[in-house]
Amino acid sequence: MRSLVMPMLLIQLAAAAATPLAANITLDGCERKCGEVDVPYPFGTSYGCHRRGFKVICDRAYSPPKLFLGGDGAGLEVLGISVQNRTVRVRATIWSFAADNTSDVVVKIIPANLEPYVLSTDRNSLVIVGCGFRASARTTVSSLQLQGDAVIASCAPSCTVNNQQKHQQPNLCEGNGCCEAAIPTGLSSLSIHFSWLDTNAATVRAPWMTPNVSVLAVEQEWWRETPDIAFKIWLLSSGHVTGLVIPVVLDWTVGQSSCTAAETLPEFGCVSKNSECLNSTSSAYGYVCRCNDGYDGNPYVPDGCQGSRRNHLTAGVLVSIGIGIGLFFLLLGLAATFGTRRLNIRKAKKMREYFFKQNHGLLLRQLVDKDIAKRMIFSLEELEEATNKFDEARVLGDGGHGTVYKGILSNQRVVAIKKSRAVVQKEIDEFINEVAILSQINHRNIVRLFGCCLETEVPLLVYEFISNGTLYAHLHVDDPKKPLVWKNRLRIAFEVASSLAYLHSAATTSVVHRDIKTTNILLDDQLVANISDFGASRGISIDQAVVTTGIKGTHGYLDPEYFYTGRLTEKSDVYSYGVILVELLTRKKPSVYISPEGLSLVAHFIMLLNQDKLSEILDEQVAEEGEDEAKQVAAIAAKCLRLKGQNRPTMRNVEMRLQRLQGSDIDISGVEEHLAELGGPAYVGGNGEAGYNYSSRQYSMEEEILLSASLER
C-alpha cells in the first residue's frame, strides 16, 4: 500500500491544477476586513496600507465594527467596497425640511474631504418625499463638471387619500407622495427651493403623511426593490427612519488622469501582472485597473490577478502526472482483490462518523441524557426502510425547512420524517435548534419529536404523524360547505394559545416560535391542533427579556415591530397569533388579501372593528353560528395586533380569556371594554411626541402603520 502514496500525491496535484490560486486583496500586513466589510487595496485603515485619498477608519466602538470613509473618523459609513465595479456603497444622509421653509437651501451630498469619490449617475436617483409644495433643485457652482444654477429636478407631488389609492406602479415615484429625478454627472451638492401650495395644503392629507419634506440621494436598485417603494415612502414621510440603512453608491478612480499619462508616473496604480489600465466610463474622471480575461483578483496589489494553476504547470510535471496516474491504476488493479472489502467497510464507518460529527451529534448528546439519546437516535437504514428509500410517493409536503415524508417503522408506528432541503451550515444549525427545543417540550398541542438520524449528510428528524393536514387547508377549501364550524375554530384558537403560553412561560427555557401561521398548525382526526416546524424558533433564557436577531417569519404574519427593529420577544408570537385569529374569523388569507381600499387584511379588520362594522368582514358561517362570541374574539385579536409589543397581552392572558369564553355565556359588554382599552371605537390616539423635527401628530403610531397599508403593494 505504501507504493500508492506517490501516485496519490500526483493525482492531488492534478486536481489542484484546475483550482484557482488564492488572490491577495490587500498589501502584506494590512487589515483585510472591518466588521462585515472587506477592505481591499487601494483602501486601507493604517499608514502604508492605502493610496492617497483612500484612507478609511475602522471604528471598533461599534459591535460589529463599522467602516467609515475619510481619515478624520467623521465620514460616511461604508456598507461595501467593489474593486471590480470601482464603487463604494455608503449609508445615505437624509435632509429634512420643515413646512413653509421658502429659503434656498444648499445640500452637500458628498463632503469636500472625499476627493476621489463622485456620486454615481447610473446607480443613484435624487428622491424628494412629501406633498403640498413645489420643489426646484439646481446645481451649485461647487459641483464638479457642472455649470452652476442648472435645474436638475422640479416637481409638485400630491398625497391626498384619493391619490394614494390610485398608485398604478408601486415601484415608481410619479408625484404621489414623492418624486424621483436622475442625477447629473459630477453632482456633489445642490440648491433646493420650496414653494408651498395653498390649494394642495387645503386638501385632505393622508393621516400618516407629515407636512415636512425629506430629500436624499439613494441607490436605485435598493429604492425600487421589494418590499415595495410605498412602504419606504411611508417610513420617510412619518419620520420612522432611525436605524434604517439607506444606501447610496459612489464611483471612484485610482487617479485623475488618462491611462496614457498615468503609465509614465511612478505612482501608476495597475501594479499586478496580468492587469490592464482603462479610462473610466463612470461618473468619476480618471483611470481604473482590471485583471485580464481569464484572471481574477485585485489589480492594484502585486500578483493580485490570479488565473488557473494549470497555466503554471510545466510540461514535465504534466508528463509525471500522467505516468503517476497510469501507475496508480495498475497498482490499484493488483490490490483490488485483497483490499476492496476492507476498504469498503472502513469507508462506510468513516463516513458515518464524519456525518455524525458534522450534524452536531456530540452536541445532541450533551442536550439529552444517555437513556433518552439511545431512544431518539435512528439509523439511516431504518429510516430508508420506513420510507421505501424516500420514495416520492411518500412525500407529505414541503415546509420552509425541508421535505416531509410519511414513514412506517418496524414496530408499525406511523411517523413523519423531515429531510432538509440543502447541505449548508444554516440548515444544520436550524436542525440542531429544532432538536434542542423539541427535546425539552412536552405538550399535547405541540408535535412530538421521536428522534433523529445523524448518519447522513442531510439531517433527518422523526416526528409523530398528524393525519388530517393543516389548519390552512381546512380553512381555505374551495367548497364553502366544508370549512370548520365556529365551535371547532374557537377550540383550535384556544389550543394554539395554550401551546404558545406553554412555550413562553412553562417550558424549561422560554421559546419564541417566530413562524406561527395556519400552515404550521396541524390537525389530527379529532381536529385537535398541533404546532409544528420549530426550525426558526429561538430560546430566550430567564434573565433575558429580548434578543436581537435576523428577521425570520412569513409575510402577513410577521410582527412589524420585530421586522423594523430586529428585537425578538415573546410578543412577536402574540402578533402572529392575532393574525391567525383574524384568519379564523374571516377565512381570508393574510399574505395575499387586499381590500378595495388597498388595505391589508389586518388593517381592514381593525378599521371595520373600530367602526362597528365587523359583520362586513366576518365569514358567513361565523356570523351565523357565533357572531356574539366572534366579537369578543375580534377584540382579543385587536389587542394582539397592537403595534408596540409591550401593549400586547401575554399568551397566558389570551389563553385564560378564551377559556372563559368557551365555558361561559356570551357577554357582549366585554367587547366595549376591550375596545375602550384600545382607545375607543374611533381608535384615536393621543398626541405622540414627534421626533425627527416633526410637529406633534394627531394620530398614534398604531394608526400610522394601519393607515400606511392603504398604499398599494
UniProtKB/TrEMBL annotation:
ATP binds at residue 419. It is found in: Membrane. The keyword Disulfide bond applies. InterPro entries: Kinase-like_dom_sf (IPR011009), Prot_kinase_dom (IPR000719), Protein_kinase_ATP_BS (IPR017441), Ser-Thr/Tyr_kinase_cat_dom (IPR001245), Ser/Thr_kinase_AS (IPR008271), WAK-like (IPR045274), WAK_GUB (IPR025287). Residues 1-16 form the signal peptide. Residues 390-661 form the Protein kinase domain. The chain crosses the membrane at residues 315-340. It is a single-pass type I membrane protein. Keywords: ATP-binding, Disulfide bond, Glycoprotein, Kinase, Membrane, Nucleotide-binding, Serine/threonine-protein kinase, Signal, Transferase, Transmembrane, Transmembrane helix. This is Protein kinase domain-containing protein.
